[in-house]
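Please go through the sequence line and token line underneath and see whether the fold suits the sequence. See right below:
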Amino acid sequence: MNYAELVLAGHVAWFELLASAGVPSRRTDGALAVMTGTPSNADNGVVVDAATVDIEAFEGVLQWLRASGMPASGVLSSRAQSALVARLATLGLRADNNANVMGRSLSDYEPPAAHVDG
């Protein structure tokens, strides 16, 4: 499993945990959306399984997320066919495939030096 797969698995697990903890959420076939109310796209958004998503039901979930006015992320938990990607784009979603995490380009990123107490 590579880094990207671990991040994806963590994001999916985080949204599942939030939903199970009682955070407002919506489920449809192939999608889970959560809305914490925190202004963070890491804590609000939707996980979509491209293989099983009911796109018409997903449109309602997307409207619910947008009505909150909070930043939100959308994560595909499985590879999407180009037709689905095009359909998601017609709903106003855009792919973020430019190697950015929270707006930070990773091409020149150097992690900070480790700090050990003691």
Observations:
- Residues 88 and 94 are 8 Å apart (CA to CA).
